[in-house]
Amino acid sequence: MTMDPVDTSPISTQGADSAPAPIDRTGCILGRWHGGESPPEFGRPALQAALDRIGHPVQIVRANGEIGIARGGLATLGETASLDQTGLPLVGYAPALLPEQLGDPGFRDAHRLRYAYVAGAMANGITSVEIVEAMARAGMVGFFGSAGLPLERVRDAITHLQASLRDPNGRGHLPYGFNLIHSPHEPRTEAATVDLYLALGVGLVSASAYLDLTPPVVKYRVAGIHRDTQGAVVTPNKIIAKVSRTEVARKFFAPPPQAILQDLVNQKVITQDQAQMASEIPMAEDLTAEADSGGHTDNRSALVLLPTMLALADEMQTTHDYRQPLRVGAAGGIATPDSTAAAFAMGAAYVLTGTINQACLESGTSDTVREMLARASQADVTMAPAADMFEMGVKVQVLKWGTMFAVRARKLYDLYRTCASLADIPAAQRAALERDYFRSSFAEAWSKTRDYFASRDPEQIARAEREPKHEMALLFRSYLGQSSNWANSGEPSRRADYQIWWGPAMGAFNQWVRGAFLEAPDRRDVVTVGMNLMVGAAALTRAGWLRAQGIALPPSARRFVPRECAELASLAARG
């Protein structure tokens, strides 16, 4: 490519709106631009407008000693074009980039999506049917937060979504999914959830919090497996695994374990032929690399985790030679156009958001929680014991501002570690727990806990009667579990006990929208938030392309200002 110094003459500065755009004065001539119906425009506003109009290419030319933005016309690129003496020198170029072009087209096709954007499952129905419906109708996909809910409520959510999301084109349903969470201490609940999904035809789940593969999740994956007329293996049920550890990711990228498959054959759940077919598929074609996030998290860095998972996907694809390529998405910290663009730039097939959706109007939490989330900063996070894996010492990331939950939850875990039973808890500590935590005697609190597990998993009660320490664990878990429900319902008398799952991404989101319409909690809806992230990511990606060509952009080009959906659609319109 021919090198030609860029003119150093000053840019036109007539009027405040014509402030010079600080474009680099040295660089390559990329080609030539042959004029359209209007001459080039000059100044920072013209450059910013061109960057924001992602449905149009950005063409930076040199004209009359100035650097400007050319619209329309014909741009020719390459060494031959740069030698052309007609037209204007083209010194920067970025093609149109629409939000539906971000991510892996295979992911979008596999799940019938317009955008590679996922609303992740947040337990206890925080990711509500309303969120799932809004995502589906916008060309995205959401996962209902079924973890922690009784099966009757999960069943109601399934039937509701299947009725409301019927595809008008006759292709079944618009895309939707449900959470399938690993329940190491309640295996019957996990198995019953899988049976419910299979019975009602839920074809997409988000498998989360798994430490190892279990018979229920394998059963879900291989149910109905068959070959098409071309001999290719077809699996009606798809899994998007959400993991933060490579050893777990390797299990999901591998075929189902033979031992579990053989057990399913012995139980006559699948045939021997189906078990053989299962050896040709991965447990999950799609896997979300979950970095520092709300709820269950290993607090991993996305900059380290995502490339590691992508390399693992390549390794497992080569090892098993799957018919369909393995894909990796990014979650944890996805809350601004910058982080969204960074995830796609690193090779993410899709992005998954969580905490920021909890702050939206459609979420299954309370207005009080939404207000608390809107006021928090990135540092307002802490770790606390998890209700579902309490005995194992597993922790979740929660909001620490405005609530005493984390402190109280850690106190319960310390007592669990040091005491053999409820009777061993010192009198002063017992009095504090009964007064501040349970607001009843241990006997009354245990009676309610017993009733809950009697209907959910009776084996837990039988074990508690044999093991006093397990009785203590169940009682303490009841406080942890109810704390999320108090937050979701906005119970005013329990505000100090609210358990609110969130990660630093929420603080980054709040900082990004400060001063814009999305700063107000009652203006946040999941589609507007999601489209701002995707359109903004496209705009920032193009700005990055221009910087790589030696164009020094103004500071405003590093920030995408939140906009209403109608304006976003206008920016993305081709023409």
Report on the structure:
- The protein is an alpha/beta fold and 575 residues long.
- It is 42% helix and 14% strand.
- The chain has 22 helices and 18 strands.
- Helix 17 crosses helix 19 (468-489).
Distance between the termini: 30 Å
Which geometry do the CA atoms define?
globular
| Annotation field: number of helices | 22
Give the overall average pLDDT: 92
Our Rg estimate from Cα atoms comes to 27 Å
Descriptive tags:
disordered N terminus; 575 residues; alpha/beta; 22 helices; 14% strand; 5-stranded antiparallel β-sheet; 18 strands; 8-stranded parallel beta barrel
Summarize the structure.
This protein has about 575 residues and is of the alpha/beta class. It has 22 helices and 18 strands.
Write the layout of secondary structure elements.
Blueprint: E1 31-34, H1 44-52, E2 58-63, E3 66-70, E4 74-77, H2 79-82, E5 88-94, H3 105-111, E6 117-119, H4 129-137, E7 141-144, H5 151-164, E8 177-181, H6 187-200, E9 204-208, H7 215-222, E10 226-227, E11 233-234, E12 238-243, H8 246-253, H9 258-266, H10 272-278, E13 286-290, E14 295-296, H11 302-320, E15 327-331, H12 337-345, E16 351-353, H13 355-358, H14 367-375, E17 381-385, E18 395-399, H15 405-418, H16 427-437, H17 442-456, H18 458-466, H19 468-489, H20 505-513, H21 526-548, H22 565-571
Parallel strand pairs: 6-7, 6-16, 7-8, 8-9, 9-12, 12-13, 13-15, 15-16
Antiparallel strand pairs: 1-4, 1-5, 2-3, 2-5, 10-11, 14-18, 17-18
